[in-house]
């Protein structure tokens, strides 16, 4: 269940209505999407379904490749001969059979990991590709900004005490409507990463921090403030 409402924020340009979703479970990526769209467009089930399709597609590709390999390599060979053990000249399993076993083990491992990930996805923490998928439906294009570039600008501005990550020309670009920020909050043995996502959205020419972990939208200061 998502908690959302529209806030009337007082600005130098008058009252601006800002749609805002508050945090539920680990659905921050879902809240980020709806906060960008400024409406309750998608539900947790929409994101779960998309996540399942993404996982199934990844597993399905591996399965299809393995099946095609058998068909192409062995033609109409009987299934029993495919499964039988045939040593090579040294009495060891052939390299083809070892490759098949390795591929099947990897596929089984992927299936197990997929079910584990789905358990995590029940509570949220969705794949970033899901955001790309849904934003594309609204003709919104996402551009990745490397953290290294951000850190470089911060390091170069240490002495000045003021960091300019994006200049006015970039911020005033009519095509630019939002920034998506993600922060790793939990790193579990490099297997599970919990990332918190939120949006910085331009609405009526003003920039707002729409962080679902907060209680309400935050109006960001301008250069004139």
Could you please describe the fold and organization of this structure?
With 225 residues, this protein is α+β, with helices and mostly antiparallel strands. It contains 7 helices and 6 strands, in the order E-E-H-H-H-H-H-H-H-E-E-E-E. Strands 3-4-5-6 form a 4-stranded antiparallel sheet, with helices on one face. The chain has a two-stranded antiparallel ribbon with strand order 1-2. Strand 4 and strand 5 form a beta hairpin. The radius of gyration is 25 Å and the shape is globular. It catalyses: Thiol-dependent hydrolysis of ester, thioester, amide, peptide and isopeptide bonds formed by the C-terminal Gly of ubiquitin (a 76-residue protein attached to proteins as an intracellular targeting signal). This is ubiquitinyl hydrolase 1.
Q: What coarse outline follows from CA principal-axis ratios?
A: globular
Question: What proportion strand?
Answer: 15-25%
Q: Describe the main β-sheet briefly.
A: 4 strands, antiparallel
Indicate the mean pLDDT: 76
Q: Provide the succession of SSEs.
A: EEHHHHHHHEEEE
Strand order of the largest sheet: 3-4-5-6
What Rg is obtained from the alpha carbons, in whole angstroms? 25 Å
Please report the number of helical segments. Answer: 7
Uncertain residue segments: 61-89
> In whole angstroms, how far apart are the ends?
37 Å
Number of strand segments = 6
Helix share of residues? 40-55%
Structural class: alpha+beta
